[in-house]
Amino acid sequence: MAVKERPPSGLLASFSAPLWERLGLVGVRPEWIVKGQHRGYDWMAIELDHQPTGMFQETYVTTTVFVVRLPHQSPDWYLPSHRITPEQQVCVDDACVYAAALGQQPRVRTWTHWLDLAVDAAEEVIRTEGMRRNDSPQQKAERVDEASWNPSDMSLLLLWLVPMAVFSFLNVMMLLEAYGDWQRHGAILRCHPKTAMGTYLQDWKAMAYAASLAVPLLIVPKALYTMATRMYKPGFLFQLCVEGAIWAGTTYALYHARQALVESVQRAC
What we know:
The protein is an alpha+beta fold and 269 residues long. The protein is built from six helices and nine strands; from the N terminus they run E-H-E-E-E-E-E-H-H-H-E-E-H-H-E. Helix 4 (151-185) runs antiparallel to helix 5, helix 4 (151-185) runs parallel beside helix 6 and helix 5 runs antiparallel to helix 6 (236-264).
């Protein structure tokens, strides 16, 4: 009968491209392992503690990962990336197949289901070994660029999408207000709510004021396109962070430029 054991030192480092790396889990540490055989394959269950994957989670999360050892190492083992979903995650590296449900610890009586899932995947990769060696460069590039679900991409998307939506809405409202001023007064009029002084922007200063509100709006569609087309694909985190940083930096710089422009023309309202 399989029993829990303490994980040996360096256990996680012994895997080449394990599931927890594919999911981008942080602070991963094994608590215990269980070893055995199922349908002729050596397997190991690893209980992993890791940092939370959601934006509003605070405590560590535990996930049980089932690992099935393949007969030999091979760079040709392959499973499509769509086998990693929010409900269950199955993947392969050059030596093992991994199966888990993120944040879950299946009861022992259900382990057979998870082991069957992993062994079925192992038999699939064995049957298909070498079938893609003669793929064209384009086919190989498409495989590398396959979307693979992970929890960090959604958190990153929300991290940028929410402030972009809020500040874009404010910019649009201020643009509409400025356009109304232009229609009524031929200038952009801003009065301080507590004093009789304000600003009266005309000509190039009015155009500069409007441009400072419009330019950040022109950056947002590119970031939205990245969110829609690159999410869960390699490089998404880096690309979105670069585009988000450009948007945030531009918004910040133009805000201060706009404030300086407003303060440069003072007149009674």
